């Protein structure tokens, strides 16, 4: 975080470096035509974990709250499925949507701290963009985040991180995330 402006580091980088670079790269006149990250959604499926241990749900909620800095919502099943031993109203996931300051702080933590800690990391797959320029990345172990104390863990779970942009342009979305410093495979 910068001392002068009291903004998250990634937001400052977006405003001072990325917007001018993308205006030049795409030969645009108006900075409003550059895409911006509108929200980041972090989701964890806890179907198997919840069926075995109801205390594990609280553990997942606490872990995601530590990682994101915001209390997540427990998502419950809408209908019963006998084949999966699932009853209506059982918890099946945990979800949190980040916007504003927390979004930029989570993005900074993801790029500069968490992804380099992934074992045998070779880069993110660039094919995970949808046609609107939104990006999704699956993380197998939540232990890559520094807030998680590995000694006190009972369960290791994965998570899905979805980065949504306000403009529907895949090419510009790829350029935006590259400028933020996302380590994509070449």
TrEMBL record:
Domain Large ribosomal subunit protein uL5 C-terminal, first and last residues per copy: 91-184
Keyword Repeat applies: no
Residue ranges constituting the Large ribosomal subunit protein uL5 N-terminal domain according to the UniProt record: 30-87
Short name of one Pfam family: Ribosomal_L5
A biological-process GO annotation: translation
Keywords: Ribonucleoprotein, Ribosomal protein, RNA-binding, rRNA-binding, tRNA-binding
Keyword Membrane: no
Molecular functions per Gene Ontology: rRNA binding; structural constituent of ribosome; tRNA binding
Membrane-traversing stretches: none
Gene Ontology terms: cellular component: ribonucleoprotein complex; ribosome
Family: Belongs to the universal ribosomal protein uL5 family.
HAMAP family: Ribosomal_uL5_B (MF_01333_B)
Alphabetized NCBIfam families for the sequence: PRK00010.1 (NF000585)
Stated role: This is 1 of the proteins that bind and probably mediate the attachment of the 5S RNA into the large ribosomal subunit, where it forms part of the central protuberance. In the 70S ribosome it contacts protein S13 of the 30S subunit (bridge B1b), connecting the 2 subunits; this bridge is implicated in subunit movement. Contacts the P site tRNA; the 5S rRNA and some of its associated proteins might help stabilize positioning of ribosome-bound tRNAs.
Assembly: Part of the 50S ribosomal subunit; part of the 5S rRNA/L5/L18/L25 subcomplex. Contacts the 5S rRNA and the P site tRNA. Forms a bridge to the 30S subunit in the 70S ribosome.
Protein name: Large ribosomal subunit protein uL5
Encoding gene, per UniProt annotation: rplE
């Amino acid at each position: 975080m910068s001392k002068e402006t009291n903004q998250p580091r990634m937001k400052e980088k977006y405003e001072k470096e990325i917007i001018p670079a993308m205006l030049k790269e795409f030969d645009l006149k108006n900075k409003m035509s550059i895409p911006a990250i509108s929200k980041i959604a972090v989701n964890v499926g806890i179907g198997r974990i919840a069926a075995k241990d109801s205390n594990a749900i609280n553990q997942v909620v606490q872990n995601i709250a530590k990682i994101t800095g915001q209390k997540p919502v427990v998502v419950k099943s809408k209908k019963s499925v006998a084949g999966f031993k699932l009853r209506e109203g059982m918890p099946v996931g945990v979800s949190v949507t980040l916007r504003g300051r927390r979004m930029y702080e989570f993005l900074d933590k993801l790029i500069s701290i968490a992804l380099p800690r992934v074992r045998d990391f070779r880069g993110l797959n660039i094919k995970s963009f949808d046609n609107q320029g939104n990006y999704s990345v699956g993380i197998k172990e939540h232990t890559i985040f520094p807030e998680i104390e590995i000694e006190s863990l009972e369960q290791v779970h994965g998570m899905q991180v979805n980065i949504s942009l306000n403009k529907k342009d895949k090419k510009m979305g790829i350029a935006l995330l590259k400028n933020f410093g996302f380590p994509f495979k070449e």
